[in-house]
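We were asked to recover a plausible sequence for a given structure. The inputs and outputs are reproduced exactly as logged, with field labels preserved.

PROBLEM: sequence recovery
POSITIONS: 204
GIVEN STRUCTURE:
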């Protein structure tokens, strides 16, 4: 999941994983991320999480401004992996596709720069979209219907892994329920999301 690493003069002072739809930052204690210095406004800015890894930064009318890569944010801004946010003395690095070691792949993080030049896609087998070919091009891609059955498919060092994110109906991989741990996908595996079946295709 996306994360923020805040430093002051090169020393890490905060490390936050973005799990909520909106994470607020400011000086007041009711914020999710509290930076207790007068150059930070009471409600300074917010990070909106869309899907699994897309994050948008919104300045909440702060007094001293919010900067991304040295440019002041004047409107809702999509963050890219490696962007650096400046708020007063703080430098906050945004990592788009990082995972906690307890939940993904036994490593502290992965980045889009590590991805191998693979070609992967899903072919929809059932429903009104049968025959549709859906390429997997992002570091993390989500599939399914919120509240019903949702999975993420993530690429990590030459392999793809599927993880159940939520929903009342547990997804199936080759007719077997997907548990809490990520499963590696193989060519021609069939994923079933509440009755919608998709076949995974992997090419070099």
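RECOVERED SEQUENCE:
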């Amino acid at each position: 999941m996306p994360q923020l690493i805040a430093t002051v003069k090169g020393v890490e002072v905060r490390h936050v994983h973005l799990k909520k739809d909106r994470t607020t930052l400011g000086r007041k204690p009711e914020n999710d991320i509290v930076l207790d210095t007068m150059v930070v406004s009471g409600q300074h800015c917010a990070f909106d999480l869309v899907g699994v890894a897309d994050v948008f930064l919104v300045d909440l009318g702060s007094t001293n401004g919010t900067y991304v890569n040295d440019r002041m944010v004047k409107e809702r801004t999509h963050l890219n992996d490696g962007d650096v946010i400046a708020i007063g003395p703080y430098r906050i690095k945004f990592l788009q596709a990082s995972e906690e070691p307890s939940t993904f792949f036994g490593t502290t993080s992965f980045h889009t720069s590590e991805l191998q030049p693979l070609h992967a896609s899903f072919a929809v087998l059932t429903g009104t979209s049968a025959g549709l070919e859906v390429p997997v091009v992002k570091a993390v891609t989500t599939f399914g219907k919120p509240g019903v059955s949702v999975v993420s498919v993530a690429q990590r060092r030459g392999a793809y892994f599927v993880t159940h994110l939520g929903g009342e109906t547990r997804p199936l991989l080759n007719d077997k329920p997907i548990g809490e741990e990520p499963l590696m996908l193989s060519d021609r595996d069939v994923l079933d999301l509440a009755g919608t079946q998709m076949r995974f295709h992997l090419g070099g």
